Sequence to fold (228 residues):
Amino acid sequence: MTIHPPELLTHLAQHDTPTICNALEILDPARTAYGFTKRLLQCSHPDRSARIGYARTAAIRTTPAHGETPAVLQARRLAYYDYINAGDGPKICVHQDLDGEAGIAACWGDVMANLHLGMGCVGVVTDGAFRDIPGMPAGIMMLARGEKPSHGELHTVTFGEPVQIDGMIVCDGDLVHMDRNGAVVVPHGLAARLPEAIGQVVAKEAALIKAAQERPFNYDKVRRMMGG
Fold:
């Protein structure tokens, strides 16, 4: 796993995910089309600050596991937790629900959240559902399709393999940034260059907003700032 300086991650977490997306587009214009979630996800705690961490991936189901014994499922469950606990944090859990739109239950709740937080996880991105939001610990934020009351027959199918969440492909160890707007993968090779690009984004947007808020409104000035 590529480990970035903690101060870099702290800096990136001070900005929202749209700003990170904009900055990535400066460094790689092709990233206007991929690398981020493309469907509406519900945030467990919209008022909490952005999170960034190294991805821990898994594919799950909440429907019955056919053809596998309870012993096999339990062994895989414990192996999954060994995987989550290993390595440096912060970590972002990225869980693909293989049941898709037919998913019947929640794959995350307050117990899972507290366990994973103890293992260094600060965020969760899933195309499944969550529950028990009032019991979620303060140190974690979740993005999911919505809320469901039961956990069904939740089990892990695979872990440590690439997953796809609403158009965002994530591999084990990828750097993921998330907030109430969604999530984006930050390529390791671009991470160190992001602060400078963020500075450009913030300065340009602040100047344009300031001009737009001036009264009387000066369209010619704004148009020149937009390259007209």
Notes: The CA atoms of residues 186 and 222 lie 31 Å apart. The chain has two domains: 6-188, 193-228.
